[in-house]
Amino acid sequence: MPDVNPAPAIPHYDALVIGAGFSGLYQLLCLRDRLGLKVQVLEAGEGVGGTWYWNRYPGARCDSESHSYNFTFSKELFEEWEWSERYPEQPEIMRYLNHVADRFDLKRDIRFGTRVTGARYDEAANRWTVTTEAGERFSAQFLITAVGCLSTANVPKIPGLEDFAGQWVHTGQWPHEGVDFTGKRVGLIGTGSTGIQATPVIAAAAKHLTVFQRTANYSVPAHNAPLKPEFKQWVKANHATLREVMRSTPNGHPFVIADRSVWDVSDAEREALYEAAWAKGGLQFRATFRDLLVDKAANDTAAAFLKNKIREIVKDPATAATLADIDHPYAAKRPPIDSDYFDTFNRDNVTLVDVRAAPIERVTPDGLQTREASYPLDIIVFATGFDAMTGPLLKLNIEGRNGMPLAQAWEAGPRNYLGLQVAGFPNLFTITGPGSPSVLCNMPVAIEQHVEWITDCIAHLRAKGLARIETTEPAMAGWVAQVNDAAAATLLPEAHHSWYLGANVPGKPRVFMPYAGGMAHYRAICDEVAAKGYAGFALSD
Ligand code: NA7
Asked: What is the rounded average pLDDT of the residues 228-233?
């Protein structure tokens, strides 16, 4: 007798890609248009953009310079797109990614509004079954996560939040209709890159802004401005050169790190070089000397310069002292860049509260209470960052061979090979996963490298008639050691509160997550692995 309620057929694909930001879009293009695979992208948002779809907070802007914050795989695409400002603002990045998606006709293979809640590997079939929030299922031979590194909002569990009578928002889940700060008393928690971008913009709109600072932070002026026509022309004419520079530098940015040590120059020369770098602005302040991230005494000279700048800009000495009371080496945490951040504390409607000295105790119905005082607020903005790198992957509830949850495999922190694959999870690739340069690199450069490597790998399997690729335990152990060694050779682990270490999320294992050996070096390692027939991976039919 026929089944009266036959289970609906599960759509089958060659590859499923989770996420439609930079990574997912390019991965779709490569697998579909270059390899001819049947591909489906599943995206939680109602449009493309990934991180930029969600991060719509006031002042949201990329810290990479615009001419380097784009794809470079297509000369035509590169030349036809024109950024308007030195750093691209969130709406402009969204326009760019929509342009890419439309230009390559990608949207027809993306299902929007589709949040993945589970993924399970079936050994016998050598396929992944992906489940969504709505209960749909999809099946594919290859599963590729393109979920970004900073997409799981970290809202601290502060007692009383549920009873707050006002509005609260996290910057990474900003309401699409915006937030009206007019006439409002606003509290902003967090002074990372996001809080530093949002503070001046919110201060200009709100009745009063109180910034709750737990860890003081360095910041260098962005000096954002409209791009001049000559610069735009120069960029268009130099696609190949720019691409080459970005691929050859450790951090994927379009500037070269100076080949001089802090100790090669006199004190006066050093000061002049820092002044020039400050006047130029942006992330390239780090490139002033080659040893800023490896020699603590060298770093101290930059730290002293930057702390002095804070004291010069901020008029109230007590506020300046709190802002300059920075406990980690410069750039050991992701270094923010800003537009008038420190100057904003000279406004009459802005107050700084040191919540390291007097921690936040609870949210009350009408505001925030620290150990020392109460702050009446109408709106609380959480600029409190993300469960970075592992968070977005663990949220997918991935189960590998024999139902092994990824969360269990990574109980003590992420373990994988090249940041790309985990033993026990065949045919699963993690674009910009932990253990790869990712967030220590200009993201589009890291993304293009991973996507192209994964595409070549799948093409190799197909050409050889192979169906499965899986890394091995020894390869993972070797890579984890390399990731640790690379971090230990720098000052990065000295920032104990950093999200690079997972320290911002209570209970998260403290492991330095990104690969700090440099993008160019990493690219060479990955190329060599491929050239050796995918050394460190087991390939089978
Ligand atoms: P970050 O860099 O993780 O910054 C989060 C900030 O929020 C940081 O100052 C934290 O202080 C603070 N924070 C987090 N939880 C709390 C609590 N419970 N109380 C007080 N303060 C808190 O996130 P961003 O969004 O600014 O930047 C993330 C990345 O996006 C950025 O690096 C760029 O790559 C783009 P802490 O330092 O933990 O003491």
From this structure: 98
